Amino acid sequence: MSLKRVMYILFILIIAGASALVGAAAGGFAVYRAVQGQPNNLPPPIQDILPANNTNPRQTLTLNNTDVETAVTKSVQKVSPTRLEAGRLRSDPVV
User: Fold this and answer.
1) Residue 50: its pLDDT value, please?
2) Tell me: the pLDDT tens digits for 73-91?
3) 12-42 as b/e, with b when 16 or more CB fall inside 10 Å?
4) End-to-end alpha carbon distance in the chain
5) Domains: count for the chain
6) Which end of the chain is more exposed for a tag (fewer CB within 10 A), N or C?
7) CA neighbor of 79 nearest in space, from 94, 58, 60
8) Structure confidence by residue, pLDDT tens digits, 26-63
9) Considering the domain boundaries, does residue 60 fall inside one?
């Protein structure tokens, strides 16, 4: 590559980078000016914190454990005995 071509590419990259930086700064300034004049209409934060001592010791927690079998689960169980032996795929017979 000639020196003229390298200098041209470098010049284009510098101009593009400067343009990106100026655009980002101008956009940030525009957003800052737009948001600066708006009143803050947010509600105040909620400060009510409930104490943890309101638990009833007679309460019980029941978890239901269910087995979910889908077609994918059954297919994987059917194909699972497959293994690789001596560079070839071998499948055990399904009982």
Assistant:
1) 64
2) 777 777 766 654 555 555 5
3) eeeeeeeeeeeeeeeeeeeeeeeeeeeeeee
4) 70
5) 1
6) C
7) 94
8) 999 999 988 887 777 777 777 776 666 656 666 666 77
9) no
